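Let us practice reading a record.
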Amino acid sequence: MVILRRPFLAALAVVPFTLAACGGGDDEAATTTTAAPTTTVAAPATTAAPATTAAPTTTTTVVTDVTEGATVVVANASSVNGSAGRMSEILAAAGYDMGTPTNSTEGKLGATKVYFAAGDDAAIAVAESLVRLLGGAVELLEMPAVPPVESSDLGPATVLLTLGDDFADQDPTASVGG
């Protein structure tokens, strides 16, 4: 192995002399190496995809008329005799559960009112349905302890419509195709 190293070492000793003979050690003949100019190429600009906006969500609330679950009594508070009975027939034909019509003790009213039994969800739903049927401009009230009717008793009814002059002898179902 020593033999193999010596020729190797001998070769290494010869390299500097060979370089000197070729001009490697001559300062006057020094070669200047210039690096090739570097060219920078910019990558083409990319445009991000346009942001997408989710389509707006539309919520449609369908309000259905609730005609069952509570009994309705119509009390005449208008200046038109017999209008409570006629309104009761119209509402019965529209699907409402009707009690016996009566007269109101509130006197003559220009505007109809709808009362409901407090805490009774079915009565509230039917009363709200009546208000919608009457165009929404009707006052919706909680039933007082003593209902404003002649007998002061509504029996099983939990909704009271006190019919004023605004809806006396009017058919509220006619405007909605009923």
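A brief commentary: Residues 1-21 have pLDDT under 50 and may be disordered.
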